[in-house]
Known about the structure:
The protein is an alpha/beta fold. The chain has helices spanning 65-72, 95-104, 122-132, 141-151, 158-161, 170-182, 200-217, 228-234, 252-257, 262-269; strands at 16-27, 39-50, 54-58, 80-85, 88-89, 105-108, 188-192, 220-225, 237-242, 245-251, 322-325, 328-330. Helix content is 28%, strand content 21%. The protein has an eight-stranded mixed β-sheet, sandwiched between helices. Helix 7 (200-217) links the parallel strand 7 (188-192) and strand 8 (220-225). It starts with 15 loop residues before the first strand and ends in a 9-residue tail after the last strand. The relative contact order is 0.15.
Amino acid sequence: MSAAASPGGSAASAPSLVEAEGLRVHFHPRSGLLRRSTVRAVDGISLVVGRREVVAVVGESGSGKTTLGRALLRLAPISGGAVRFDGADLLALDRPALKAYRRRAQVVFQDPYASNSPFMTVGEQLREPLAVHGIGAVSGREEIVLRALEQVRLTPAADFVDAYPHTLSGGQRQRICIARALVLEPEFIVADEPVSMIDASSRAEILSLLRELQARQGVSFLYITHDIASARHFSDRTTVMYLGTAVEVGPSAGVIEEPLHPYTKGLIAAVPEPDPRNRRRMRSVIPGEPPNAAAVPAGCPFHTRCSQVIRGRCDRERPKLQDVRPAHSVACHLYDGSV
């Protein structure tokens, strides 16, 4: 395995498909008439997605999850580090090679209302990527479209081909987005909060559908979410992000059932439980708000909100991601010397 596979261990079941090593995405917006600031949206992430594997990326809003996913697809400008797909350097791809990569790597966006064109029927939206990549004859694309709709359980498929998005529910619109990604038969899909904007019953059904597709077609997923409970249900491994960095990486069961980092513990403690006694019980929450990504604190980025901060250490020295348990890593000074 490459060096990118070391944090958190490698994918146990298969060789890596996607590898990011020291990935950085920095933006430079104006902060005054003649000044620019640096927003460290992703700041040195190393991540591996194995073949046929689901890797979750969890964290609060603003932690850099979506920017990370977009960078892996070359949809966001990469400031530094390396990204490889099936061994190929993504930063070295020319336009034809990048187009070929886009056929193998797809995305399901968070908002099914904004990511469906109101001016195109369902059939037109699913035929468009086939036309762009020159897949199949014009007469044969209808069969591919119908098969994709059946895969996402929109049946009878013929009833949806000529429908416009405004006639569909939120869950149905998200299935259209998934079908649009599947028509190209990709090997890797970035699923960016695919269930955050739909109701609870549809949420469980969409996650079940994605897991079924992953098992049947062998697709690798990067599952981006703020819902750490769904990450436990859907993913094999989990990376916890805070202010553009990885603070904990490991098997999803281990990260969620035995968390190590104070930030991960805080995220899990805030998950509501269906217990009537909780109506009168104050839940533990992480204090304060995440700092501005344009003014990341010195030392550990989380030290300004951490209840276990070590003064003189956490506020001065940034912890490195280190293995604490088998295939389970954490970036926290509380575990220094525990290897």
